[in-house]
Amino acid sequence: MTFIWPELLWLLLVLPALVLLYLWLMKRKKQVAIRYASLAMVSQAMAGRSLWRRHIPPALFLLALAALLVASARPFATIRLPSQQETIMLAMDVSGSMRATDVEPNRLVAAQNAAKAFLAELPRHVKVGIVAFAGTASVVQPATLSREDLVAAIDKFQMQRGTAIGNGIVMSLAELFPDADIDLAKMQYGSRPQGSSLDDKAKPGKKVYEPVAPGSNGAAAVILLTDGQRTTGVEPLEAAKLAADYGVKVYTVGVGTVTGETIGFEGWSMRVRLDEETLKAIAAKTQAEYFYAGTAQDLKKVYTALSSKLTLQKKETEISGLVALLGAFLALLSAGLSVLWFNRLL
């Protein structure tokens, strides 16, 4: 916990003085009571059942005062708060290697089921869009609040050849920032597109985006799921740099076999290997995280964890109001107990 005005914490030194004052008053009251036999007898008779009660209201009041003094120093703490996340893009690999059955029933079906479970966990106000990528990438469902449309788009995935991981990231960014001049074709076949490098001038009518700190965009995120390594398209780390310039976190999820596996289909075969190093680098460059899912159950756990991360985030925030509220509650409790037990305030 940190404080904006830590100097005010010196006021807490008043509390020991108040404790000493309270003890002195109790001692003085006892001395006065001894002078009168009747009062002494009453005090002795009630000592067993009211002595502990006598000290509770003052103790609570002292704690209330301490809380209010701490609140005056304006404390800050890191707590979990609801995220302001507005749009999440799911970039999902639909390359031929996703038909491998090392993740039951196969990688693609496991990914589809986990994605649909993820959608069910998200708050309804969060928009979600879906990008499918193999040799190319396309937006199969623009960002929407309709969970039914998203589920329908996931169910329609068709596997293709190739793995263009970078394209999946770029298409997700183009959907998140429709006013930016993010041109996948130019990034893939030519020089960096005008406007995709945030230091360049944008085309007329396009919004100019200044580079921001990586991971600083709290309103958007990308979840990238793949089971292989890039075979075509934009370099993944170049796409990750673009995401970092926009402050968008790219959470990467690796599915399948790290050591590699040979799969075949309709007369052709291919060796597929999960490129964990690149996925970790993408996540690191965008201030996000990498997750490995070796089974269908692991994949569901990953999406559950991501749902929590994207809807509840740790933030450093001022908690003066909460501490002051605690102080007020303790003060009211102190006064209430004093009236209930002794028909007086403290």
Description:
A 6-stranded mixed β-sheet has the order 5-4-3-6-7-10, with helices on both faces. The protein folds into 2 domains: 2-78 and 317-342, no CATH class; 82-316, Rossmann fold (3-Layer(aba) Sandwich). It has helices at 14-34, 37-72, 107-121, 147-155, 165-176, 184-189, 236-245, 276-285, 296-311, 320-342, and strands at 2-3, 75-82, 87-93, 127-133, 137-144, 220-226, 249-255, 261-265, 268-272, 290-293, 312-318. The chain contains 10 helices and 11 strands. The chain has 346 residues and is of the alpha/beta class.
In a few lines, what is going on in this structure?
The chain has 346 residues and is an alpha/beta fold.
Uncertain segments are 192-196
Instruction: Report the radius of gyration as a whole number of Å.
Output: 31 Å
CATH class of the largest domain: Alpha Beta
Number of discrete helical segments = 10
Structural class computed from helices and strand pairing: alpha/beta
Strand content: 15-25%
The total number of structural domains is: 2
CATH superfamily of the largest domain: von Willebrand factor, type A domain
Major sheet: order of its strands?
Answer: 5-4-3-6-7-10
CATH architecture of the largest domain: 3-Layer(aba) Sandwich
Multimeric state of these chains?
single chain
Order of helices and strands: EHHEEHEEHHHEHEEEHEHEH
Q: How far apart are the termini?
A: 32 Å
Shape: elongated
Characteristic key phrases:
346 residues; alpha/beta; Rossmann fold; 2 domains; six-stranded mixed beta sheet; three-stranded antiparallel beta sheet; 10 helices; elongated
